[in-house]
Design brief:
Length: 308
């Protein structure tokens, strides 16, 4: 009997499901202290090694932030707390926060942001000032992420252009070239793959080589997503949600990021050097909902704590 000749399938021949699986490897997810409290054990939901960002909303005591970081780190996950410059009073406060995170949760990575408040509480008004402070370098942080805006940001560029955002990216690229810390752009979420791809390609063309961790809104009620999208200044891709809302057959169905992820994954499979390297989930419909959706749609499964 003749032997069957099985050919090894190359990456270009990967199925859509395999493409999404590859694209979602090492995804990260965002929590807040109050949402983290609803999760009994993150090991029951997330793959081992998942990076967990901890969002710092104005008014949240630093004690709650550090306690959340300590708890999630104790469960075995690398934590990346937000440092929103505009709510940090001064350099001494920044140094104190860093010391608390390191002392209690062994934190060595951070997301640096301007922060979503109009008036700074003190000396800082941008993530660039946080980088310039030297405090993260002094503390030996191994990874520093900064914000990316695939659809611009009208808080930064009120005229609708991307001039200030682009200038900031060029500054951050120079900083990245001169630091030992690994850097990445963690982006605002968007709902349409085509402008995301165009934006990412434009970075490469402009000499911005910082890897991109693309923000993706997790599954949620359509009304919830539209509310968050408007509040967060999501740009043209908001039309994807608005169009869906006009279809009564879809209005009551939860939004899932299946289409945008499939398109991005297919582009990555066809262009392995594409600068989007990771997916970062905003679990706007709940952490458990997002984590379970990721497992069901190509992500790695969690290993339950009590599994034999």
């Amino acid at each position: 009997m003749a032997l069957l000749n099985f050919k090894k399938r190359d990456k270009a021949a990967a199925t859509p499901n395999e493409q999404v699986h590859a694209f979602m490897q090492d995804y990260s997810i965002e929590v807040m202290p109050r949402t983290a409290e609803k999760v009994e054990d993150f090991r029951d939901l997330l793959p081992a090694g998942t990076r967990v960002y901890i969002a710092h909303i104005e008014g949240t005591p630093i004690e709650d932030m550090v306690a959340t970081a300590k708890r999630i780190a104790a469960e075995g996950f690398p934590v990346m707390p937000h440092f929103p410059g505009r709510i940090i009073k001064d350099q001494a406060t920044l140094a104190d926060w860093i010391a608390r995170y390191q002392g209690e949760a062994n934190v060595n990575q951070a997301l640096l942001l301007a922060g979503g408040v109009d008036k700074p509480h003190g000396d800082f008004h941008s993530s660039m000032q946080l980088l310039e402070s030297g405090e993260f370098d002094k503390a030996g942080f191994k990874r520093l992420h900064v914000a990316g805006h695939p659809e611009g940001n009208k808080d930064i560029d009120p005229d609708g252009s991307t001039k200030n955002v682009d200038d900031a990216l060029r500054w951050k690229q120079k900083f990245s070239d001169n630091t030992d810390a690994e850097m990445a752009l963690a982006t605002q979420f968007a709902f349409d793959a085509k402008p995301i791809i165009e934006w990412a390609n434009s970075l490469s063309e402009a000499g911005i080589t910082i890897p991109v961790h693309i923000g993706i809104a997790g599954p949620a009620k359509l009304q919830t997503l539209i509310k968050f999208a408007i509040a967060c200044g999501v740009g043209p891709s908001l039309k994807v949600l608005q169009k869906r809302a006009m279809d009564v057959t879809k209005l009551l169905l939860p939004y899932e990021p299946t289409e945008v992820l499939a398109e991005l994954a297919a582009h990555k499979a066809a262009n392995p050097d594409f600068n989007i390297t990771n997916v970062h989930f905003f679990p706007l419909g709940g952490i458990k909902t997002n984590a379970n959706w990721a497992i069901e749609n190509g992500g790695e499964a969690a290993k339950p704590v009590n599994a034999s």
